[in-house]
Amino acid sequence: MNYLDEFRNREVVTGLAGRIRQLTTGRSEPMTFMEVCGTHTMAICQYGIRSLLPPRLRLISGPGCPVCVTPNGYLDHAVACCRLPDVIIATFGDMMRVPGSSTSLMEERARGADIRVVYSPLDAVALAAKHPGKRVIFLGVGFETTAPAIAGSILAAAGEGLANFFVLGAHKTIPIPMAVLAADPELRIDGFICPAHVSAIIGAEAYRFLAEEYHIPCVVTGFEPVDIMQGVEMLARQVLAGESRVEIQYSRVVKWEGNKKAREVLARVFSPCDADWRGIGIIPGSGLEINAAYAAFDAAKAIPVEVEETREHEGCLCGEILKGKVSPADCPLFGTLCTPEAPVGACMVSSEGTCAAAHKYGR
Amino acid sequence: MDKDLILLGHGSGGKLSHQLLDDLIIPALSAIPVSGQNDAALVEHDGRRLAFTTDSYVVDPIFFPGGNIGDLAINGTINDLAMMGATPLCLSVGLIMEEGFSRKELASILASMRKAADLAGVRIVTGDTKVVPRGKVDRIYINTSGIGVFAHDLQINGCRAEEGDKVIISGTIGDHGIAILAAREGLDLETGIESDSAALNGLVLELLKEGDAIHVLRDPTRGGVATTLKEIAVQSRVTIQLQEAELPFKAAVKGVCAVLGLDPLHVANEGKLLAIVAAEAAERLLARMHNHPLGAEAAIIGTVTGVSGGRVQLETVVGGLRAVDMLAGEQLPRIC
Q1: Global confidence as pTM
Q2: Concatenated DSSP letters for B229-294?
Q3: What is the CATH number assigned to the segment(s) A72-173+258-302?
């Protein structure tokens, strides 16, 4: 089966759109489903999914973009590191344009800092091996999908005996913040479109507490248009039947128990810690920090540096956007003072940002 | 953002590039109105029309699957003249080389340039050569300028798209940019993707036989098909709607873009053209393209639907509707 084309089949999508419309005709109350994965944010916009759904069925974006939910202080820390002598910053591409309190990595590169875009954390390990006289700092930002790969890169660096490879981490986990949003009386989420690849690691079981304690239907959904439409239909059915269960739509990849091996690698290198989420604040136990055994690879501990005082930008509504309370078009800065070329907040410039998606696809 | 810094994005061909041109460069050097910003300049002298263009090439790596910086420089400038409907007459070549650059590599690049020019039937008539100390340029940069003449009175211009016109692409999208990316990053992709760098003046000659049905010709280089169509939509003040299902891609290019999170509509092409043509001539033009070796995979990909605002929209493969925008900053630097 060709997984790209089959799950982009127009007839199937049209059929699902028809079924969703039929299901929801009788209902006057709106339904609001939240996705918490930047790839879902982008896919929904890229395929024009909202234009296929009835107007009473709203899809909103939550804090699914790991770059966006990382407050300015992290970027400021990375900038401070890039200004140290003999440092190479290795990062995924979309961190380059994210604005910190006063500058961005892209501007620092234009000023002469050695900042390189890599596609995998192992590329950063290779850089460290290739440049023994430099300190290579990999910017580790991501959820449970990327964390095992970053854990793997620390283990690889340890295995090679490298003393010049570091990770500046801002890893976060997704289920606990979903509970915070579920409990928010202003939001009234009727269902969660649960992330696809995060769930491949943590398993669909990770959301059981949301369904059972918070009574919110959860469907683990893939990224293709057929997946998204089917996930929406499954959520709508649960809502109409008054149910709240966890279901797996993305059955070709996600299991109930997830990927045990990946979680073992994760646990060797990382432990849960408190984490600061832009717009939400500190959520206990929602982050991942590097274990003491690997402290030599933790840039925050191993490389002392002075970081400028963090300022958040006035008027920036990223925090409200990330909670799904405000949509991009409602932000007074959207498209005017805040654009992809001159972003005020991370949401406009990250490849998974809600505002970036709306700006690119939504107008 | 520090407004004093020139960023990589200012050279990418997308929004930042346009801002730099509009805010600083064009006002300083001349005053070309938006409707006049095409691939080449039209110069009138003594009642005769000439086309004049220039382009600089900083592609990295200088040798890549499907070509090198030399033939890219020749084909690119020939194409800019051809997109005006001009017959390319002659070219200049400016070389800036780094001390220590390989003479053998230079010879190979020059041979490719000669071959490309001969194939296109265009002469290289003048040039300049500079060498700077090691480290001051990256191996070699090339500038080519070109003059073209007109064998007809047709006005082919970015401001001429009309409601009802059809949009045709001459072949698969994104090949050049992905070939460069794969070569530069050493991506072991097993894809066999090669740059599509080619001189399009022969293909354009074929199309010009349909005369005034051709309203706009442009080659979607930096910034890709999306940026090029957005520029035309703004110049002509129209809305262009594309059909995603009709866009031709090599499977490998689509796959690489999906894996790396790149939008293929923003990826550079160096041997393809977009033609915006009168609806009644579209099928005939498509047939002419199919009969030419460089147009075998041509396809009608969209329609000019409305007279407003300078927008590009896409009907997605599943029937949804979304906007298509210009490349914002830099997707892949030093792509041409």
Answers
A1: 0.81
A2: HHHHHHHHT-EEEEEGGG----HHHHHHHHHHT--GGGS--SS--EEEE-GGGHHHHHHHHHTSGG
A3: 3.40.50.11740
